Amino acid sequence: AQSVTQPDIHITVSEGASLELRCNYSYGATPYLFWYVQSPGQGLQLLLKYFSGDTLVQGIKGFEAEFKRSQSSFNLRKPSVHWSDAAEYFCAVGAASGAGSYQLTFGKGTKLSVIP
Amino acid sequence: KAGVTQTPRYLIKTRGQQVTLSCSPISGHRSVSWYQQTPGQGLQFLFEYFSETQRNKGNFPGRFSGRQFSNSRSEMNVSTLELGDSALYLCASSYRTRDSNTQYFGPGTRLTVL
Hints:
heterodimer; B: 4-stranded antiparallel beta sheet
């Protein structure tokens, strides 16, 4: 079964500083990987995804992520954080089941606080 | 295109009651998945519906059920509510092709069980 680990429960950064959120996954085949962001009381918004090809993927709001197969990682980065980036971030791996279904397995999330 | 819509946004129920939540997917999307989000357990997969058939179900009791209609709209039902069912219930839709399994989420329904 697949799993996702986000080692950092809470990260605080100053506005304008760089950001890296860590994500490690466990999956037997080539994974579909996603990062979602959730503001308080809201649903999940897709930031970016990796299916195949270039291991550095660009997303919305200036975010990017790099897939490293050797490290089973898919870390999210942003060069300069804005106060509006304060939210909770979820890494997810998508996998097909033998029943022809497809589901996402999420990490526990990393809450990002931004100091003005 | 309109996004995924979920109704109602908020619900308050008492133990033992049942509840039905509704999800309308993005136009053209045929797959609808449901997830439960709680502070303790995080985001957990409930089930997926595709072409009106339940394709997979997560590790939840039989009190949790769902269905999908011919227009891809989906409902989930929770019977005999327990306090632990209080959660944010998220619906996600996707095209569900081999190369496009990206799931787009709705705003969720916040269920509170008293």
